[in-house]
Amino acid sequence: MTEDAISNLTHHTSSKDPATSQPSRSPLTNSPSSSAPTNHPTFRSPTQKPSSRPTAKPSNGDTRWYPGTSKCLSDGKAPSWQSNLYASQTTCCINHFNWDYNNCLGIKQQPTYKWYANWIMNRCVQDCDSSEGGSCGGIVGGSYVITHNSAEACCSAHMSYMSISQCKY
């Protein structure tokens, strides 16, 4: 190698990474993590008990999803006659509970406080947990339920044969 080539290799600077006289960033710590290297491995004293329960061993059962009575299940207990088995909960819910998809997935429905006809009570009630009291008649179960912005609109649409005061819960 020529002297010029060696000089170029040892003094090479790039326009992207010019040499600087200062570090590009501060050190991550102000002091070393220990005063000196140890001659022996460091370890902590063993604990008296395990810190947490061991994980369960893998299941050998069938963990595919199948339709239950109100949602899809993956408990390995599908009846022998059940032929509707799915690799995912989503696919099972779409195929068997699309009318109550959120419940099938275990997603708690949030109240809208809109009004709907409760045909069992024969009244218009609000879409909210009945434990809240007032006009709350329970959370609407599915998207097939028609809701209204007011009790008056609900009563006019579904129970026009009675007065608003009789219709409104």
TrEMBL record:
Residues 1-22, 44-62 have a biased composition (Polar residues). It comes from the Eukaryota. Residues 1-68 are annotated as: Disordered. Residues 23-42 have a biased composition (Low complexity). This is Uncharacterized protein. It comes from Cyclotella atomus.
